[in-house]
Amino acid sequence: MRIFAGIPLAAAVIDELSAISVRLRTSADGLRWSAPESWHITLQFLGNTGQEQYECTVARLGEMRSPSVPIQLEGLGLFERAGVFFAGVSLTPELLSLQQRVTAATALCGFIPETRPYHPHVTLARTKGKARTHGLHELKSRIHRQPAFTTFVAEELVLYESVTRPTGALYEVRERFPLATASTWG
């Protein structure tokens, strides 16, 4: 199974992103838009995992202690090379600490952390086929102002399984791990 650790979004943020997607989407944009139920903030992509490594990951993440994390989405942007339209996420010290705790915990199960800097975001759309730049540039021209998003507090991290389908990936929740509230964090 292909798995990753991530943060689910608050309902208010999903509503805000849904409104943006509806406003910006066109039938001719050549993009594959992500479904709202698939939106999340990836902490670490783990990839193909056997049963033993999966059980190790569940145990290590279950032992991990971390406070809840305030999350603030930033403006809309593009990863042109990868063909991705996204909503950026503010990289706060709290979010970076959580991401580092996750990678330290999964390293005990044989996962190797990314060498690239962590760039939290929510993927809203991807290009299809070879029309990468045209669809993204067309989309960029429709963004006239950056939206403001509701701040929320991440109170759990989730271990997702990525199931690939012809229509795109489907993300199924495999495990949930609560983050401590400020009053229980010691």
Q: Would you spell out the secondary-structure blueprint of this structure?
A:
Layout: E1 2-8, H1 11-24, E2 31-33, E3 40-48, H2 51-63, E4 69-71, E5 73-79, E6 84-89, H3 93-107, E7 121-127, H4 132-141, E8 152-154, E9 156-165, E10 168-178
Antiparallel strand pairs: 1-3, 1-9, 2-7, 4-8, 5-6, 6-7, 9-10
Question: What report would you give on this structure?
Answer:
There is one protein chain. The chain has 186 residues and is of the alpha+beta class. The chain has a single domain (2-178), classed as Cyclic phosphodiesterase (Cyclic Phosphodiesterase, Chain: A, Alpha-Beta Complex), CATH 3.90.1140. It is built from 4 helices and 10 strands, in the order βαββαβββαβαβββ. It has a 4-stranded antiparallel β-sheet with strand order 3-1-9-10. A 4-stranded antiparallel β-sheet has the order 2-7-6-5. A hairpin with a 2-residue loop joins strand 9 (156-165) and strand 10 (168-178). The termini are far apart. 28% of the residues are buried.
